[in-house]
């Protein structure tokens, strides 16, 4: 794990297997998302923009839209995403 996260991403938490990476959803008042990246794929997440965007599109989980206290419903198409990238996903 030599790389730093690209601008606009931060680590929310980590455990022995995953980094849970947060990022803003959309622009002003968009919301917040999270994606769990296996530690073995962290460098790929940092270095490969195409892979990163594909992983985000497929797996990222919306935590909230706008502000948490507004309780805006998550779109049905996004509701079932787990936020976890499988270790073998390439």
Question: Features of this protein?
Answer:
29% strand; alpha+beta; 90 residues; single chain; 4-stranded antiparallel β-sheet
Description:
- The structure is a single chain.
- The protein has 90 residues and is α+β, with helices and mostly antiparallel strands.
- The protein contains 3 helices and 4 strands, in the order E-E-E-H-H-E-H.
- A 4-stranded antiparallel beta sheet has the order 1-2-3-4, with helices on one face.
Topology (elements, then pairings):
Blueprint: E1 9-14, E2 18-24, E3 31-38, H1 42-47, H2 49-59, E4 61-65, H3 76-79
Antiparallel strand pairs: 1-2, 2-3, 3-4
Mean pLDDT: 90
Q: Report the biggest beta sheet as strand number plus sense, adding barrel if it closes.
A: 4 strands, antiparallel
Alpha plus pi helix count = 3
Portion of residues in beta strands equals 25-35%
Morphology call = globular
Structural class: alpha+beta
Order of helices and strands: EEEHHEH
Q: How helical, in percent, are the residues?
A: 10-25%
Give the number of DSSP strands. 4
Question: How far apart are the first and last residues' alpha carbons, in Å?
Answer: 18 Å
- Cα-atom radius of gyration: 13 Å
Low-confidence stretches: none
> What spatial order of strands do you see in the largest sheet?
1-2-3-4
